[in-house]
Amino acid sequence: MRSAATIKVLGSALWALAFAPGAFADDIRVDKGRELAQLWCASCHVTSANQLTGADQAPAFQEIANDRTKTDKKLRVFLLDPHGGMPPLNLSREETNSVIAYINSMRPQKNQNPDPPDDYPDPDGPSTSG
Known about the structure:
By secondary structure, the chain is mainly alpha-helical.
């Protein structure tokens, strides 16, 4: 009969194998998006922290990532049908998803809590000291 510890270790290993391929695929997609951004976008946009300059009118990828209104859907529509000063990129859907994954990898982590603004209500109520 197997010990409880052995079963626990095997269960943990199976769980990791079940979910690791998705994470690995995401990493590959982000890497592909980074490559595509360097190839197609870096002549106008600052696409990474290592790049010093881009065109004045083109927002940096980090700026796009920080803008919460730039959803995956909005980015997808924009990349598949560029407008404004953007040239037609002719990216496949998979390439588009990779560029979006790369931009999303730059977004602030969801579990980070920025300091609330000064006018944010105190959850403990008004201060009675002072």
